[in-house]
Amino acid sequence: MDVDITSLIDVLFMLIIFFVLTASFLQGTIGIDLPRGNAPRVGERTPVVVTVTDGSILWAGEAVSRDALPMLVARAIAESDDILIAGEKSAPYGDVAELLDEMRVLGVESVGLAFDGEKK
Q1: Closest among 89, 104, 110, 70 to 59, alpha carbons compared
Q2: pTM of the model
Q3: In the chain, what are the domain boundaries?
Q4: Do 73 and 101 contact (CB within 8 A), yes or no?
Q5: Of the candidate ranges 7-11, 40-44, 68-72, the one whose mean pLDDT is the lowest
Q6: Higher per-residue pLDDT: 36 or 81
Q7: How is the beta sheet containing 57-59 ordered, strand by strand?
Q8: Is residue 117 predicted with pLDDT exceeding 60?
Q9: DSSP symbols for 62-117
Q10: CA-to-CA distance for 80 and 70, rounded, in angstroms?
């Protein structure tokens, strides 16, 4: 009595392909544990807060244009000021991401992101 194992071999090859593809997708991920909201203050100095609202940018509480950012960032870097970006809830995430990218291009090596604290 002969047993036909052709379908079993097909299923095994499909499983091998599945596991190979899954392993290749997992290589690009980074496992991180995000902060919950009660992070201690890192520096003793008060950082420069850059607020991103729906359509405008505030540098230390004053509205600025994107053209003025290079000068302000250069001054902050020269004075070794910490920069903290506070994105308003109603502001599009893309605006915050663009500002982070612009800061990186302007030479800022470290930027903090402000959050409201732990939800109750």
Answers
A1: 70
A2: 0.57
A3: 48-113
A4: no
A5: 40-44
A6: 81
A7: 62-64, 57-59, 48-52, 83-87, 111-113
A8: no
A9: EEE-GGGHHHHHHHHHHTT--EEEEE-TTS-HHHHHHHHHHHHHTT---EEE----
A10: 15
Please tell me the CATH code under which domain 48-113 is placed.
3.30.420.270
Label residue 64 exposed, middle or buried (CB < 10 Å: 0-12, 13-18, 19+).
Answer: middle
Token pair for residue 24?
């290749």
**Type of residue at 55:** G
- DSSP structural state of residue 17: H
Classified as helix, coil or strand, 49 is: strand
**pLDDT tens digits, residue range 41-68?**
555 667 888 888 877 888 888 888 888 8
Tokens 């915050």 -> residue: 96
> Quick one: tokens of 36?
């919950």
